[in-house]
Amino acid sequence: MKQILVQCGQDQIEVAVLENGKLAEYDNESRGTEQLAGNMYLGRVMRVLQGMQAAFLDIGLEKNAFLYIDDMLPAHLDKQPQQKPLVTDLVQEGQTLLVQVVKEPVGTKGARVTTHHSIPGRWGVYMPEADYIGVSRKIANEEERLRLKRAAESKVLPGEGFIVRTAAQGVSEATIAADLEELRQRWLAVEKLVEQPGAVPRKVYSDFGLLSRWIRDGFSEDIKELWIDDKEIHQSVVSLLRTSAPSLSEHVRLYESRPISLFATYHVDEQLQSGFKRKVWLDNGGYLIVDYTEALTVFDVNTGKYTGSVSLEQTVYDTNLMAAKDIARLLRLRDIGGLIVIDFIDMGLESNRQQVLELLVDETRKDRTKTVVVGWTKLGLMELTRKKIKTGTDKLPVTRCKTCDGNGWIWSK
Questions:
Q1: Structural domain harbouring 201
Q2: Residue whose C-alpha is closest to residue 8's, from 307, 277, 229
Q3: Cα separation values, 254 from 210, 228, 232, 266, Å
Q4: Is the N end or the C end of the chain the one with fewer CB atoms within 10 Å?
Q5: Rounded Cα distance, 314 and 72, in Å
Q6: Ranges for the S1 motif domain (predicted)?
Q7: Does residue 395 share a domain with residue 286?
Q8: 286 plus 371 within the same structural domain
Q9: Is the same domain home to 288 and 359?
Q10: Cα–Cα dist 381/344, whole Å
Q11: Residue 95: how many CA atoms within 13 Å on its side-chain side?
Q12: Are the C-beta atoms of 317 and 284 separated by less than 8 Å?
């Protein structure tokens, strides 16, 4: 059973996703602030580095944004040159560019930006200059894929692109057409703002706020309940869904069991604290050790208190299966990106190794962030990658622990 909990405080809104009672995702946003990823800026090129095939742009943030050459070439792969040109042939210092943030600033690094603009909607993602149609890979039925692709193809204009999202499965062609037209109008509004005289850099488009993004991106038929503890916000969400997705409005609930908070009722804060510890216990008594480095994140799997009852191979296999499920959950909860290596406990049977791999692949399919399971290395480690957008701990009330040289966090909530 999947549930979304929305806790509305005076200073911030928090969102938690539970799967069978276990915390799988968490996000928050302070009132009056916003996520940068998805926003578009009219920026000025400050430096062009031929040796890095990249440029740095001032988009009005504290640190200059980073634009790599791949994000300047055409979005349609078939239209890209066989040999990459020099970055100096594409962009010059002082030039004004319309860019979109794809990765939040992290630490000493500025935001990562692209010229491949996109505006996500409820049923699809509109790309004004991509010139191709795509359908989510999570839609497996070939007949349905073809229907959705034809529906999008009949409505896009020359040069436009559109990717049909997983949520569009079973949705009528008229609904998809309406979504595409709404997104197109938003892009036309961006173009008008760009053409208007004004200071550079400046922001010309903002993505939705936290709750609106979750309603758009994360609320689907597999969510059994959406709990909101604020009456006004609850009413506005129900009204919105009755127009855009009537069947989902029936899943929205108002939480009124004060003085016990919504998160306290579902033990969210407790699970947040335990989920971000270096040592994370598994339900069977085994445990994970999670370590971060600049290059990658490492998970080490241990049997711990679990001794099993059949054989050593079965004990190890059971622990690895449980670890695979929990690691996939922790990747989402902690929003871990980049290269990830898992040191599962050694197994003697190749069939068991294959089962662990397949389970990990299945569990990562639940992730809305692109995750690729590469497979076993020759040293018996599991490799995978996950798209890095932001650091999960940036959203938490934690500070780096000075005692352990920054390897742990101190909870301050």
A1: 119-205
A2: 229
A3: 18, 5, 10, 15
A4: C
A5: 51
A6: 36-116
A7: yes
A8: yes
A9: yes
A10: 7
A11: 13
A12: no
SS (H, E, C) the chain: CEEEEEEECCCEEEEEEEECCEEEEEEEEECCCCCCCCCEEEEEEEEEECCCCEEEEECCCCCCEEEEHHHCCCCCHHHCCCCCCCHHHHCCCCCEEEEEEEECCECCECCEEECCCCEECCCEEEECCCCCEEECCCCCCHHHHHHHHHHHHCCCCCCCEEEECHHHCCCCHHHHHHHHHHHHHHHHHHHHHHHCCCCCCEEEECCCCHHHHHHHHCCCCCEEEEEECCHHHHHHHHHHHHHHCHHHHCCEEECCCCCCCHHHHCCHHHHHHHHCCCEEECCCCCEEEEEECCCEEEEEEECCCCCCCCCHHHHHHHHHHHHHHHHHHHHHHHCCCEEEEEECCCCCCHHHHHHHHHHHHHHHCCCCCCEEEEEECCCCCEEEEECCCCCHHHHCCEEECCCCCCCCEEECC
Is 411 inside any structural domain? no
Token pair in block for residue 301: 């799997």
- Structural tokens at position 315: 């004990």
> Both 88 and 100 in a single domain?
yes
Residue found under tokens 């009755």: 242
Asked if 52 and 132 sit in the same domain, the reply is no
Contact 381, 342 (CB under 8 A): yes
What pLDDT, on a 0 to 100 scale, did the predictor assign at position 47?
94
Residue pair 125/163 in contact (Cβ under 8 Å)? The answer is: yes
Q: How many domains, in total, are found in the chain?
A: 4
Q: Which of 155, 187, 205 is the last residue of a domain?
A: 205
Length of the chain measured in residues = 413
pLDDT of residue 257: 79
What is the pLDDT at residue 407?
Answer: 59
86 lies in a domain? yes
Out of 59, 81, 114, a domain closes at: 114
Q: Which residues of the chain have pLDDT under 50?
A: none
The pLDDT assigned to 143 comes to 93
Residues 325 and 354 placed together within one structural domain of the fold = yes
| CATH number of the domain to which 12 belongs | 3.30.420.40
